[in-house]
């Protein structure tokens, strides 16, 4: 499985929702499409699901146009809609028939699928009685019905309460073992839990495409965090005059010393401290923001 999104642009009147967006997803990846409200996530996802047409650009799945490969894609919309008077089993049976699946096949597969999404015991309950998390898990079952190679999900957990969110995240952890996943969210911590790669979108543009490690390394501050005894605070005033020290900030119980070159200047700084008889209780080289801070820095 290889999904290639090539230079997709989509405009709604004057508004460019997706702007020259390209990316590739390979088999077994779980990719988070991250962006604030209105960034263009739903528009892009609907173009991949072949629900919306792009104005420019093309999407290929295994080298073939996406429109001819729809049976390889499972799509979970942002707000899945079910008939409240149908049971979970009837819902999947109805959806499966609409997608052209055989009745016999459905009779066999639906109980297995409901079991997989944790709704085995609720198979014959009306969907109207389901919680948000249960409905979302039913939506995931529906998207998996035809055994797609790629699952695309639009904000699968954003609208759920903490319990529903946990249920769905746990389910996604299971599904990603056997299915390639692209999911959109504006909540980075959700994506962080299950995705290995993060593609950030802002005003329709791709602004970042990296693994967690790459993101952390790329956004690592050139600073050293030190904790010293109160008696040694005088040492800090001497640092102001060093050519490689850019700035000193007080930070919690210690100090953040910003330097020009982390690798070389950290050694110089520790040597300077030792020569000045400073006792370090903490000396941490390279301060990494967490992903949430990186996200805010990039998108706001
Ligand atoms: N059918 C439409 N007609 C006009 N403008 C639209 C339409 N659909 C989306 N837009 C606009 O395109 C931009 C991108 O919207 P989109 O829904 O793709 O963003 P999003 O990242 O999914 O946001 P959210 O997290 O709020 O769902 C927004 O400015 C939105 O108002």
Automatic annotation (TrEMBL):
Taxonomic superkingdom: Bacteria
InterPro entries listed in its UniProt record: AAA+_ATPase, ABC_transporter-like_ATP-bd, ABC_transporter-like_CS, ABC_Transporter_VariousFunc, P-loop_NTPase
Which residues lie in coiled coils? none
Its protein name is ABC transporter ATP-binding protein
Record domain ABC transporter: where: 3-228
Molecular-function GO term, any one: ATP binding
Taxonomy of origin reads: Bacteria, Bacillati, Bacillota, Bacilli, Bacillales
Q: Which organism is it from?
A: Lysinibacillus xylanilyticus
Enumerate the UniProt keywords alphabetically: ATP-binding, Nucleotide-binding, Transport
Nucleotide-binding is among the record's keywords:
yes
Classification via Gene3D superfamilies: P-loop containing nucleotide triphosphate hydrolases
Keyword Lipid metabolism present in the record's keywords: the answer is no
